[in-house]
Amino acid sequence: MIDLHGYGPRLAEGALITLELAVLSLILAVILGLLTASAKMSRSRLAHGIGTLYTTIIRGVPDLVLMMLLFFGGQIGINQVTDTLYDQFGIDLFINVNAFVAGVLTIGLIFGAYMGETFRGAFLAVDSGQIEAGRAYGMSHWLVFRRIRFPQMMRHAIPGLSNNWMVLLKTTALVSVIGLSDMVRVASEASKATREPFTFMIIVAAIYLLIASVSEWGFARLQKRYDVGYGEVK
Amino acid sequence: MESLMTWLEAQLADNSIFTLQTLGYYGEGLATTVQLVALSLIIGLVLAVPLAIGRGSTHRWLSLPIFLYCYVFRGTPLLIQLYLIYYGVVFVEGIQETWLWVILEEPFVPALIAFTLNTAAYTTEIFRGAIKATPRGEIEAARAYGMSRGLMLRRIVLPSAFRRALPAYGNEVIFMLHASAIASVVTIMDLTGAARFVYARYYAPFEAFLFVAAIYLCLTFAILYLFRTLERRLLAHLRPAGG
């Protein structure tokens, strides 16, 4: 058996944090991605401009730099706001930027831009006749979105979504740098303390591979579900 | 040059953070980042070509290890790979007595090894896809001409595969530039390292990180422009007529 020097439970907690972080960021990224895709497809010049600016900037700057900007800068920014509130209105407020929240916000914000591109392509791939048919049935915009555009869009979006999820999962490793005790941080602390980097780093790498393999299987099943009606003739 | 420096100094006179000294840190950081990224991309590219050919081999003993290498390096975070090499290299038996230790002691070389292995794995997959997409007729034609396997690879398969791989490889280059930011974690003074230093010294996160973000943005646009120009030249035959 591998000797973990008592780091086993902390490593398990770290793995849970990694997973929570990844799932919460994914949810935020999907919501932001849908909003961005709608903004970029909108007729409004302003919405289009904001969407384009967002995706261009986010995709041009390293994740780690954005994370540090939001984490270190976020605290100072919030402090300035709360200080002003106190000086002007006497409202005493203290908000502490939590590393976990900063992690979710940054990763969600970064991958929202990538998801936006994925969803935009997928929405454009839906046959416009389908949407017209929905309108002809007297469906509202929202109903057309929910019953026709979204289910058909997902079929085209899943390969990109799965790809983004894999990259997102690996990006979560960066939160260890801003002080969150995810499994990478636990492993790097354990490596330094026990002087056995191989043991801990290989375990963490194996957990990442495991999560990636399981989600690959999950996405394949999801694809099958959304492909119903498009299957190959047997 | 002298007058430029005095002009710059005058411009920066009222600025407490962006002095000539801190701009110097950013400059050195830029040089480190560019070196690290360029070296790992070049070595990775050289490694990836034979690996991509081997990956498609019908011999399992050749293709399976390459597949596993790609799977592991693409499936785990680069940060883990960097830690593994950076912390692990000390524990290689007897390495501290050899001449290699002089260069391995610096964090630059372990980082370079990690980045190279990582980009080689991604590039192998990109080339693999491009080689697989070679039209069957081209291979048959090469065979009909009596070309050997090596000649066919050199004259027919690889040139067109490189062109097909160009857009995806451009993305990989940008990805590598962004990934190189984690070099700062193992105490390398790259661009991000310089920003972290300036942040820590002046406690000015917005100035330090927004400035470095702008530099990365410029580098990204430069790479995009380079690849777009390259694609226009090399993929001219694929453009729709009259377009």
TrEMBL record, chain A:
UniProt keyword Cell inner membrane, yes or no: yes
Keywords recorded for this protein, A-Z: Amino-acid transport, Cell inner membrane, Cell membrane, Membrane, Transmembrane, Transmembrane helix, Transport
A matching Pfam family: BPD_transp_1
Membrane protein topology class: Multi-pass membrane protein
Any GO MF annotation of the entry: transmembrane transporter activity
Transmembrane segments: 15-39, 51-73, 93-114, 156-178, 198-219
Protein's GO biological process: amino acid transport
CDD domains xrefs: TM_PBP2
Ribosomal protein is among the record's keywords: no
SUPFAM superfamilies the UniProt entry points to: MetI-like
Main location class: membrane
Residue ranges constituting the ABC transmembrane type-1 domain according to the UniProt record: 15-219
Any one of the GO CC terms: ATP-binding cassette (ABC) transporter complex
Compartments where located: Cell inner membrane; Cell membrane
Protein family (similarity comment): Belongs to the binding-protein-dependent transport system permease family. HisMQ subfamily.
Protein name: Arginine/ornithine transport system permease protein
Source organism of this protein record: Halomonas cerina
Lineage: Bacteria, Pseudomonadati, Pseudomonadota, Gammaproteobacteria, Oceanospirillales
TrEMBL record, chain B:
GO molecular function, one term: transmembrane transporter activity
SUPFAM superfamilies linked: MetI-like
CC per GO annotation: ATP-binding cassette (ABC) transporter complex
Name of the featured protein: Arginine ABC transporter permease protein ArtM
Chain ranges passing through the membrane: 33-54, 66-88, 108-127, 173-196, 208-227
Subcellular location: Cell inner membrane; Cell membrane
Homology family: Belongs to the binding-protein-dependent transport system permease family. HisMQ subfamily.
ABC transmembrane type-1 domain: residues covered: 30-227
InterPro entries (UniProt xref): AA_ABC_transptr_permease_3TM (IPR010065), ArtM/GltK/GlnP/TcyL/YhdX-like (IPR043429), MetI-like (IPR000515), MetI-like_sf (IPR035906)
PROSITE patterns: ABC_TM1
Keywords, comma-separated and alphabetical: Amino-acid transport, Cell inner membrane, Cell membrane, Membrane, Transmembrane, Transmembrane helix, Transport
PANTHER family: ARGININE ABC TRANSPORTER PERMEASE PROTEIN ARTM (PTHR30614:SF10), MEMBRANE COMPONENT OF AMINO ACID ABC TRANSPORTER (PTHR30614)
Membrane topology: Multi-pass membrane protein
GO BP, sorted A to Z: amino acid transport
